[in-house]
Amino acid sequence: MASCLLAGERLIRALGPGGELEPEQLPRKLRAELETALGKKHKECQPGGTERLISFHLIRDLHQYLRERDSTLYLHELLEGSEIYFPEVVKPPRNPELVARLEKIKIQLANEEYERITRNVTCQDSRHCGTLSDLGKQVRSVKALVITIFNFIVTVAAAFVCTYLGSQYIFTEMTSRILAALIVASVVGLAELYVMVRAMEGELGEL
Length: 207
Hints:
Number of helices: 7
Shape: rod-shaped
């Protein structure tokens, strides 16, 4: 936080012999403090510095004195060319344990982000995982296809046989019994095909 002022040439000349502040008859203590501030290094505001620095409280005392005397010399005129001094902020050293923890968290977050990005990336090394995984997928696909066809045949055949045997109580002629069994088997077969097509569409949509 700023607490000092870099004195400009106007203020330095005003405090010097024959300056603008000489007729104002400044109190001896105030003048001594101002001259000391301008003539020496100000340890509080700038350690080791060479600029002529005046603290704000001395500027306030000077302003108050000029107002009490109803002086025609205004403070803003004396401060022409002066600047507020902002001391350099010395940053405290960072805690090594905190730095180590932050680095560890950064590495962990980077690994999690990498795993999230490469989650859906397929393996490119065919010697390790490409051949075996592809072969396993093909075997499972063929197995599922064979089971589906076998279930379809068994279901249609069972529907035909059941209808043929059950129709003997309704029809006496064999032609009628066979025709009824074919109709029922066809309906069951179409229903099975519809279910198979819907299942295949669902699997393709997930790919």
